[in-house]
Design brief:
By secondary structure, this protein is of the alpha/beta class. The chain contains three helices and three strands, in the order βαβαβα.
Length: 70
């Protein structure tokens, strides 16, 4: 399974779960971000004890700002 794409409504639902949440913030045009996505997807496949997600900072500015992501 790959990392979940997270938006504002799904983030609120994921926060209510009992599993820890690991989030990668990324930008489509960012080469280092693109390099990390396969690693994040592998982690999501290997770990059932955590929820692994990714947030596109261009689409979810409010979430990025809430976490201090620039």
């Amino acid at each position: 399974m790959s990392a979940q794409n997270i938006d504002s409504p799904s983030f609120e639902a994921l926060k209510a779960q009992s599993k820890p949440l690991l989030i990668e913030f990324y930008k489509d045009g960012c080469a280092p971000c693109r390099a990390m996505l396969p690693i994040i997807d592998d982690l999501a496949s290997e770990r059932d004890d955590i929820v692994v997600g990714k947030i596109n900072v261009d689409e979810e500015n409010e979430l990025a700002s809430a976490f201090g992501v620039m």
